[in-house]
Amino acid sequence: MKLDENAISINDLFFDFGHYLLDKRLDCNGLDMRYLFVDEFQDTDATQIRTFASLAQTIGARLFVVGDVKQSIYAFKGATDEAFDILEAEMKGNLRYYSLSNNYRTCSNIMKIMEKYFFAWSKEGLVSLVGVSFIATLLNYFTGGAFGRKWFMTYHSALLSPMTWVRAFTHILGHADWTYLAGNMSYLLLLGPMLEEKYSSQTLAGVVAITAVVTSIVNYIFFPGVGLCGASGVVFAFILLSSFTGFKEREIPLTFILVAVFFIGQQVYEGLTIQDNVSNMAHIVGGIVGSLLGYGLNKATRL
C-alpha cells in the first residue's frame, strides 16, 4: 500500500533492507566494501544496529562506529543508551573499544556541572547490584541465615541440582554480616564507575559473572565442607583490573605489580598463617581473574 501511494519512509527502507539481509535474500556479492563507517552511533535504534552488523558480516567488511551514549537525543525514534551493548551482542563480542578521554570543544565549567549526572548514570548497574545485595543480607538476617543458605551461598551440593549452578552466580550477593556488605559495596561503588567507563557495563558484568563462577568452582573442589558467600572475590578482581588502566603494549604496568604484591601477597600470607583461608581463597582467585581479564582486554584494544 505504501509503495502504491509513494509513501515509503526512511524507516521502511531500513526495515525492509534489514529484513531481506537477515533472511539472506539479498545478493551482496557485488558489494566490494572493506570498511563500513557509522557516525553518531548513539542515535541508532536496534533495527539499524542489527542491519549494520549483519551487512558487515555478510560482505566481510570491517565495521567502525563512532558515538557517545551520553549524547543520545533520539530516544523518541528508538535510540537507546544500550546501543554499544546491542552491537556487541550482534557481533558476538568481537569488538575493540577506543576511548577519547579528552574533550577539546566544551569548556571546563560545563563539564564540571554535567559530570555529577554522568557519574550517577554510570553507576546504575552497580547500584542495582548493591540494592540486591542489601535485600539478600536483610532477608538472611531476618531468617537466621536460612534464606542465604538456600539462595546466596555456594557449597558442595549435587552437581545435577539446578540450585548448585544458580548459587554459583548468586553467592556474591549474600554476605555474612553488615560489616562485610558495607566494605565490599564501598569498593565496588568506588572502582565500578571508572571500570564501566573504560570497559563498558556489559564487559564489567561479564567480569563479575566469571569471577563468581570461578571462585565457586574452586571452593567446590578444595573446600567441600565450607560454604562461601560475599562479593570479596569480585572486589579483588576490580582492584587488579583497575591497575591495568595505564597498560602499554608489551609492558606490565607498575601499578599492577604493586597491587599484586601488596594485595595478593597479603592474602597468600594470611591464607598460610590465619585460619580464614576460604575468604582468602576468594580474594586470590578474584585477583587472578581480574589480572588475566585486565591483561587480555587491554591487549585486545591495542591490536
In order across it, which strands form the biggest sheet? 1-2
- Fraction of residues in helices? 55-70%
SSE series: HEHEHHHHHHHHHH
Number of helices: 12
Strand content: under 5%
Query: Whole-number average pLDDT?
Result: 78
Given the helix and strand composition, which structural class is it?
Answer: mainly alpha
Query: For the report, how would you describe the main beta sheet?
Result: 2 strands, parallel
- Would you report the number of β strands? 2
CA(first)-CA(last) distance: 50 Å
| Radius of gyration of CA atoms, rounded to a whole number | 23 Å
Which spans have pLDDT < 50 for at least 5 consecutive residues? none
Shape call = globular
Structure overview:
The protein is mainly α. The chain has helices at about 10-20, 45-60, 85-90, 110-120, 125-140, 145-150, 160-170, 180-200, 200-220, 230-240, 255-275, 275-300, and strands spanning about 35-40, 60-65. The protein has a two-stranded parallel sheet with strand order 1-2. Helix 2 (about 45-60) links the parallel strand 1 and strand 2 (about 60-65). Helix 2 packs parallel to helix 3, helix 5 (about 125-140) runs antiparallel to helix 8 and helix 9 (about 200-220) packs antiparallel against helix 12 (about 275-300). It is globular. The model has no long low-confidence stretch (mean pLDDT about 80).
Jot down its keywords.
303 residues, mainly alpha, two-stranded parallel ribbon, 2 strands, 3% strand
List the helices and strands and how they pair.
Elements lengths: L9 H13 L12 E4 L7 H14 L2 E4 L17 H8 L17 H15 L1 H19 L3 H6 L10 H9 L7 H22 L1 H22 L9 H11 L11 H20 L3 H24 L3
Parallel strand pairs: 1-2
Helix pairs in contact: 1-2, 2-3, 5-8, 7-9, 8-9, 8-10, 9-10, 9-12, 10-11, 10-12, 11-12
